[in-house]
C-alpha cells in the first residue's frame, strides 16, 4: 500500500445526476447491455506507462511530475511505483492493466541485469494479483526508447540489435504468459526509416516478417493461448514507419503468411496521425478479419503529433464501438487507456479523475452504439442502398466477364441513374443516440 492516493476511496457509480468529480456517472460495470455486463463488454485497462512511468515531459520541456518513485532507477522505487499502480487499480475497479518491460523495471547495466530486475517485479506483480481481481490485458516490450533502438529493433541494420530484440521479446512473452495475459502486443516504435539513402527497405521488411514469425512460433511453443497483436502507427517517431495503418499492416501480414495468426491493436491517436478516423481503422480491420483490441485516447486536432489525451468525444467513441459490436465485440481484446495527463495536471486526484472521465465517455459511447444496433436504422439504410446487389442479375454479373457486361450496357438493358447517399440524414440519425 502506498500513500500516493491517500484519502481517495474506491470509485462508485452514482448515476448521471452526480456532481462528484470522483464518481462514475455513466459507467456501471454491472449494467447488462445486449446480454452482457458493461464491464465484460468494455474490458477497460490502465496503461502502466503513461499513468506511472511518464514524468510529464514533452518535446520542448522536461519533467513536471514529482512522484515518490522518481527517479525510476532502482528496484525499491520500482516496487513503490507498483504499490501506487495497484492502489489505482483498486480505486478504479477496472478489470485489466497493460505494461511495457521498461515501464515496470529499472534498466540494468547488462541484459542479464535488466532481466533480473524485470523478473523481480513480475514476482511482485504476481503476488499482488493473487489477492485481486485485476488481470493482464497485454504485455509488450519497449524497443524504441533506449538509444540501442535508434535505428529500429527487428529492422535494425545491426544483427546484434535484432538478437537483443528477440531476447527481449522472449522475456516479455514469458512474463505475459506467466501472468495469464490475454494478448501480447508488438508496437514497432522505430520499425521504419528516416531516409532511403541509408535504408535497404526490402531487407528490413523481410527481417521484420521473419521476426514476427519467430514470435508466433514461440507463442505456440510455450502454449500461450492469447492473441498476438501488432499496433499500427504512422510517422512518429520514424519519418516512414512500416506499420502505417490497418490496411498496411494487413498487407504485411499477408506477405509473410501471418494473416491468420496475428490481429491488430488499434489506437485512436494513431488513426488520426494516419489521416483516418478511428472508426475507419476499426471497420477496416473488422472487414479484413484482424480486429483484436484498441487503445482509447485522442489527439489534439490543432497539433500534428500524438498527444495521447483521455477521450472526451462521445460521438467519436460511439462510432468506434458501433463497429466493434458489429464485428461481434471483443474476445481477448479490450479498451486500454493509452492516455496521459496534461503536464500541468500534477496531482494524484487528476490521474483518478482522468480515468473516471474516460471510462464514462466510453460507457456513454458504448450505450449509444448498442442502442443504434438494437434500433437497426443504419443496417436498414445499408440494406436499402445495396439492395440492387441482391438481385439475380447482379449476382450473375459478378460471375460474368467484361464483354458480356459491355453487351448488356451497350444494348440499353442497363441505364443507371444516381440515387442519394442520404449522408446528412444518417448523421442526424446518429446524433439522436449520442
UniProtKB/TrEMBL annotation:
InterPro entries for the chain: Xyl_isomerase-like_sf, Xylose_isom_bac, Xylose_isomerase
Sequence positions that bind Mg(2+) 2: 267, 270, 306, 308
PROSITE patterns the record matches: XYLOSE_ISOMERASE
Cofactor: Mg(2+)
Binding site for Mg(2+) 1: 231, 267, 295, 338
Entry keyword Ribonucleoprotein: no
Biological process terms in GO annotation: D-xylose metabolic process
Taxonomy, superkingdom: Bacteria
EC number: 5.3.1.5
Gene Ontology CC terms, in alphabetical order: cytoplasm
Cofactor annotation comment: Binds 2 magnesium ions per subunit.
Active site: 100, 103
UniProt main location, coarse: cytoplasm
Gene Ontology MF terms in the entry: magnesium ion binding; xylose isomerase activity
Intracellular or extracellular location(s): Cytoplasm
Reactions the enzyme catalyzes: alpha-D-xylose = alpha-D-xylulofuranose
Keywords, sorted A to Z: Carbohydrate metabolism, Cytoplasm, Isomerase, Magnesium, Metal-binding, Xylose metabolism
Keyword Transferase recorded: no
Subunit note: Homotetramer.
UniProt record similarity statement: Belongs to the xylose isomerase family.
Protein name: Xylose isomerase
Organism: Shimia thalassica
Lineage: Bacteria, Pseudomonadati, Pseudomonadota, Alphaproteobacteria, Rhodobacterales
Amino acid at each position: 500500500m502506498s500513500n500516493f492516493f491517500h484519502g481517495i476511496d474506491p470509485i462508485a457509480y452514482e448515476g448521471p445526476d452526480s456532481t462528484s468529480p470522483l464518481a462514475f456517472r455513466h459507467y456501471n460495470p454491472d449494467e447488462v447491455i445486449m446480454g452482457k455486463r458493461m464491464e465484460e463488454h468494455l474490458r477497460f485497462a490502465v496503461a502502466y506507462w503513461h499513468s506511472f512511468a511518464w514524468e510529464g515531459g514533452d518535446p520542448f520541456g522536461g519533467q513536471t511530475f514529482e512522484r515518490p518513485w522518481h527517479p525510476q532507477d532502482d528496484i525499491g522505487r520500482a516496487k513503490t511505483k507498483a504499490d501506487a499502480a495497484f492502489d489505482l487499480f483498486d480505486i478504479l475497479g477496472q478489470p485489466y492493466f497493460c505494461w511495457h518491460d521498461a515501464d515496470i523495471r529499472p534498466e540494468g547495466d547488462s541484459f542479464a541485469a535488466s532481466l533480473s530486475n524485470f523478473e523481480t517485479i513480475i514476482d511482485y506483480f504476481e503476488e499482488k494479483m493473487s489477492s485481486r481481481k485485476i488481470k493482464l490485458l497485454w504485455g509488450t516490450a519497449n524497443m524504441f526508447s533506449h538509444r540501442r533502438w535508434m535505428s529500429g529493433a527487428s529492422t535494425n541494420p545491426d544483427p546484434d540489435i535484432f538478437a537483443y530484440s528477440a531476447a527481449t521479446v522472449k522475456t516479455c512473452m514469458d512474463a505475459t504468459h506467466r501472468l495469464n495475459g490475454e494478448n501480447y502486443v508488438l508496437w514497432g516504435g522505430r520499425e521504419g526509416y528516416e531516409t532511403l539513402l541509408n535504408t535497404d527497405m526490402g531487407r528490413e521488411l523481410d527481417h521484420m516478417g521473419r521476426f514476427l514469425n519467430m514470435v508466433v512460433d514461440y507463442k505456440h511453443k510455450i502454449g500461450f493461448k492469447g492473441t498476438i497483436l501488432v499496433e499500427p502507427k504512422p510517422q512518429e517517431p520514424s519519418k516512414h514507419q512500416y506499420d502505417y495503418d490497418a490496411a498496411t499492416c494487413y498487407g504485411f501480414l499477408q506477405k509473410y503468411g501471418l494473416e491468420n495468426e496475428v490481429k491488430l491493436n488499434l489506437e485512436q491517436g494513431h488513426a488520426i496521425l494516419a489521416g483516418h478516423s478511428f472508426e475507419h481503422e476499426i471497420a477496416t480491420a473488422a472487414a479484413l478479419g484482424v480486429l483484436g483490441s484498441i487503445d482509447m485516447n485522442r489527439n489534439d486536432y490543432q497539433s500534428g503529433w500524438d498527444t495521447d489525451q483521455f477521450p472526451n468525444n462521445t460521438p467519436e467513441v460511439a462510432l468506434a464501438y458501433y463497429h466493434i459490436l458489429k464485428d461481434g465485440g471483443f474476445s481477448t481484446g479490450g479498451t486500454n487507456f493509452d492516455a496521459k495527463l496534461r503536464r500541468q495536471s500534477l496531482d494524484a486526484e487528476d490521474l483518478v479523475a482522468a480515468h473516471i472521465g474516460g471510462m464514462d465517455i466510453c460507457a456513454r459511447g458504448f450505450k449509444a452504439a448498442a442502442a443504434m444496433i438494437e434500433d437497426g436504422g443504419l443496417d436498414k439504410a445499408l440494406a436499402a442502398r445495396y439492395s440492387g446487389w441482391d438481385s439475380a442479375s447482379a449476382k450473375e454479373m459478378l460471375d460474368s466477364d467484361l464483354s458480356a457486361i459491355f453487351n448488356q450496357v451497350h444494348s440499353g438493358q442497363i441505364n443507371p441513374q444516381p440515387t442519394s447517399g442520404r449522408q446528412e440524414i444518417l448523421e442526424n440519425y446518429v446524433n439522436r443516440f449520442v
